[in-house]
User: Fold these one by one.
Assistant:
Number 1:
Amino acid sequence: MTAAIEAIDLKKTYPPGVAALDGLSMSVATGTIFGLLGPNGAGKSTTVRVLSTLTRPDSGSARVAGIDVLADPIGVRRAIGVVGQKHGGAPEATGRENLISHGEFYGISGRELRGRVERSLERFGLSDAADRPVKTYSGGMQRRLDIAMGLLHRPAVLFLDEPTTGLDPEARVGMWREIERLAAEEQMTILITTHYMDEADRLAARLAIVDRGRIVVEGTAAELKSALEGDRIEIALVDGDGAGAQLALERVEDVGEVSLTAGMLYARARDGGAAIPAVLAALESHGVRVASVTMARPSLDDVYLRHAGRAFQEADSQQEEVAP
Amino acid sequence: MTAARQTWQVTLRGIRVLLRNPAYLGITLTQPIIWLLLFGALFKAITKIPGFHGGSYINFLTPGIVVMLAVSSAGWSGMGFIEDMAAGVLERELVSPVWRGALNAGTVLYSALVVSLQSVLIVLLALALGANYVGGVGGVLLLILVAALLAAAFSSLSNGVAMLARQREALIGAVSFVLLPLTFLSSALMQQSLVPAWIRAVARFNPVNWAVEAGRSAAMAHIDWGLVLSRLGLLVALVLVCAALATRAFSAYQRSL
């Protein structure tokens, strides 16, 4: 498959010397959903700004839908749709008026434009509210209008910058369904940035974790999880020889990273379910009484904490990117 | 064609904001009336100054008020862009292929339209107060045209300042800083032969004065075509230069993102 988004060694520094992008490279296959994860200030939004021609990198190059963002920004703008973190609709105009003027900005007009606007209002459930000012819309309705505007000119590549931030759970799930539908039915390439692991896990075919302006790890959600090497096993001990139990556990095949904290044994096993019988047998033969055993498959949270956790507390205390 | 359609969409947005905001509409329509009545009352004695030969006070002041209001009205144009930056509207527009010139030209056209409307109100009220439009309807239309051109230039300047400064406070400061000096350094409120020589010298380079001179000559006197056409030419050139600068300010803003 060809790449719909290709970025090579992007660098961008904001005064007074904050490196927002520090050699970021990425590639997104056509027709797939790609998730960018990372703490605030990691460079997610700057990446979207560069790829959507809102700003230029200090160095590096990028192609979107096969068009160079530096050489032909207008060509890129025709080929992309962008749904930013903030609502882009004019608040005093109605939903219909917003879609019409947005369409004119893309050179669509006349009957063609009116037809697209009607279909778009219908598709996003905004027909009833079409002639109300956008400032009277709920957060979910405004988000749907944002996406309707982003899709009106039928872009090949869609950028979604934290699309469900601030939405209630019901609206979030609705948004997820719409995004999945776009990728499946319209073969659209979608780059989504998010804070939410469940969102990335559900939507993104591939995802990358961004930290300090570069991509630290990339793969499918399953690949990233299995790269953590195994499930986590937690054993609550009733009483007795904790240190001895730890020793016994370390001898069990395929079990590693054993640690003991306050009557709890922690271990990691490639296949947790298969390891538990052996673990219990080893502990029993050592005379250790077990109160309970819990096994957890690695979550995307674990992946995230492993790769971005180091930076994520300090980064979160800083401001998001360098807001313009 | 596409550029014109896009410009009109931006203008249309301004018109919608005006029409859907009763308070804003009310202020926009009453401001001309209040200005003419206040300045008229304040400067009523101007005709008694020895050496004044501008005719009745209302004849002298009307073009001055029209032009002063044009600057004041158009000066706030950039405020819309500052709001759009905060709301995310500008970002959406800038990632679209819309011609950047249209974003500026649309608000410039809107400012010119609003100022034309306000000027008509002043002209009609002045007529009721006894103004004598020697230049006839054609002369009055020329007065409104120079006011609209001056508004267009200041609207672009305001947009440019907004894109570069990006703060309400900066724009408010710039408008307040510029409005009164430019008015006082012109013949808007005082006959040029009655002001110090250095003000007369500075006024020759003041666009506000170009507009006042041309408007007054066209509407209130037997028109001096040489004066009117030269000032019109200067104003048109100024509109184009300011529009080009403002359009470039969009690129400067984008570079800083």
Number 2:
Amino acid sequence: MTRAAVLLALLLAASPAAAQVVAIIHAKAYPIAPKGVVDDATLVFADGRIVSLTAHGAPPAGAEIIDAAGRVVTPGLMNGATQLGLGEVSGASDTQDQAVRTGPLGAAFDIHYALNANSVLLPVARADGLTRAMSYPAGAATAPFSGAGALILLSPGPDILERPRAAVFAEVGDNTLAKAGGSRAAQWVLLRNALLEARRYAETPRGQGPRDQLLSRPDAEALGPVVSGATPLAITAERESDIREAIALAQNLHVRVVIVGGSEAWTLAPSLAAAHIPVVLDPEANLPQTFDKLGARLDNAALLAKAGVAIAFSVSGNGIYLSYNAGLALREGAGLAVANGLPYLDALAAITQGPADIWGVGDHYGRLAPGFDADIVIWDGDPLEPASAPVAVFVRGARASLTTRQTRLRDRYAPAHAGDDLPPAYR
Amino acid sequence: MADAFASRARVVGLAALACVSSLAAQKGGAPRLNQPPYLRDAFPSTYRPLPRSDTLIAHATILDGAGHRIDDGDILLSEGKVEAVGRGLAAPAGAVRIDARGRWVTPGLIDIHSHDGTYVEPLTTEDENSSDISELSDPNAAGTWIETAVNPQDPGFTRALAGGVTALQVLPGSSPIFGGRSVVLKPIPAPTVQQMKFPGAPQGLKMACGENPKSEDVEKLRGPTSRQGEIAFIRKAFADAHRYKADWDSYLAGTDDKRPRDDPTLDTLAAVLDGRIAVHMHCYRADEMGIMLDLSHELGFRIAAFHHAVEGYKIAPLLVQEGVCAAVWSDWWGFKLEALDGIRENAAFIDAAGGCVMMHSDSPQLGQFLSIEAGKAAAAGRRAGLTLAPEHVIAWVTSNPAKALGLDRRIGSLEVGKDADLVVWSTDPFSVYTHADLVFIDGAVAFDRSDRSRRPTADFELGREPRASE
């Protein structure tokens, strides 16, 4: 052993988290970009970053070896829009922080202050392969804004915030008409006005704001990064007319728009592609649940992708899958999209690199590529089959436990315990 | 165990009927009812099967719903019934022949918990305070019949059919304690609900425990506001029903000439006490189910199934001992306090104890993907170390719900003589990639994925087909 190696070994012993090199061998790896699959891949990572991905590669000396034995390996998944970390029990409003109904806040409602790293929903999503998410506000008091969403990292530690105010969300359409006085026309007028006022506010020396401004100072400030183009404006919209308005707004007011929902987005696929407007859609949405969603269909994702629209997924599942099964439902939705015409590799991208690029973290997450964050999942089958599950999940290189409150209940009540003398509470 | 319960109820029911008819004969046609009002079917089925041909489906992987798997299997449908199942069957002259090589065949799926036709697509503000999901004026809505509200033009029906569903039970919602009578339908839209009604299918009574009814009552200031209040309320309602039924029984026996008042609410509860109507009980927590089981014995009603039963896995042996089925989701949990302990192994653990478990939808969204639901639930069980073969798991969406509905002699499995309700799947029905290629109901093609003329659409969707604008 050379002196350097001894030193390295000592260092490793002193701080086990640092510099441990891990090599996953014999993997069927999906790097996402470049598109394709690498059979018998060796994936090396250290210090929370991916070092290399090579076919038949020899693992570095001294690396911890994990034999994937031909299993599928992908980046950790990313949910394009969820409310993870913002609520525990939807039926109990005192456990919910994703929306405000009264008070002065609109665009300035900033959910990152409420993120709860100890939420029991997080380990469930992580054990289903989710390592990233856009956690977004469900609604704010000032129409048509919902507030600022945050990018979260499902790391096992206490800090799950990756980037606050990663996008400002607004919602138009039937779900929130009342807040704008009863018409979507008012929603659009308010939204356009807010952007114009925010721009004027940003360009006006402090203390000299116009007197007739509808926006409060905090809301105008919160929209500053949107009007400067630094932060995307996410518009939840389902109906074709609203999506058309969103495209027009992006072009007239020079803001970066992301459509969320987009049940009828497929009808405008070429326009969306031409305007470079991505869509975060629900691949399971195929029912005319409201008059805004009459055109919902399962090949929405396939049609958008074919036209060149950037897509990512978020699955509502009666509002339950959105956060409670934010990992499992995402995979199931991606699988359904494949069953309805989306190429398999595009579906994998729509739950990794797709949302990463849309929300602005695609430079360091979403691919199995050197230098990228080591968010990695080893699967026991096809990840797009909801019957499959991860056998190992790494978040920025740290191996996460797959134990959840649910697996604890499972173990406590397993059929093998049927004959036990003591009640389950003693297990 | 569920069978044992069902047959006891049938015996009780038949005994009551026999008694009634002999008395009517004694009175020589006197102008009095010869059947208690609680046994009448006010809206009889007028369903007629679609046009059909005898059909041989050949070379399929068959899961028959009765526990068997036949690889490269054939199934012959004749006159709307299963004529033969096996290998190398010959197609009779004139029979349609379908080559199902590489495809799978299962019994038609049965959704034991649907709100199609009342939780309609689309749901609008008109439904916010006056939806047809439940009658909310009284926590005891036992007198309501959900079939009188079902809108046959709800697109939910055609979507369920496209997902392989051939029979579904529409239940009232869980806001009232007594939700009302359920109805079993075939998801083939028709102008009237009677034309969709499964002929001869027993009604059920929806009851609910736990959070939903008590929260609703607090909001509306109209009834019990606690779990204990719900139980006391149920006790009182059944005490009234016992008296009501006794009054009718003495009137029909001729021991009392005064004709009792006809009360639709008590009619339903009397039919439950009579054994003709089984209870479909919405409960989440294990302790609530334990209380309800004792209550059912005390008051004399039969619970066919607990619905949702999110904590069913905690009392699996009790469910087995009581012969009560459990209708569950694969993975819903957490959205309310009583759902916090939902686990994905719920179905598999109940099954492992020998219980009758079923996947249910409760939602038009999920009602399209019941076989995938079963696939997810089975996968969780396998990871927990249980052996769950596909030919066993298919029962969770076919023969088990048939049993809980009291229709297991007619549907739920592909056995000779049963109704020819079945699905030809493009691939493994438990896979997310599967499609129902063909759905047969009573031997007729009710849905064909490749033939527009055999894919029903609801009137609502006519003239609204969106198109690409560019």
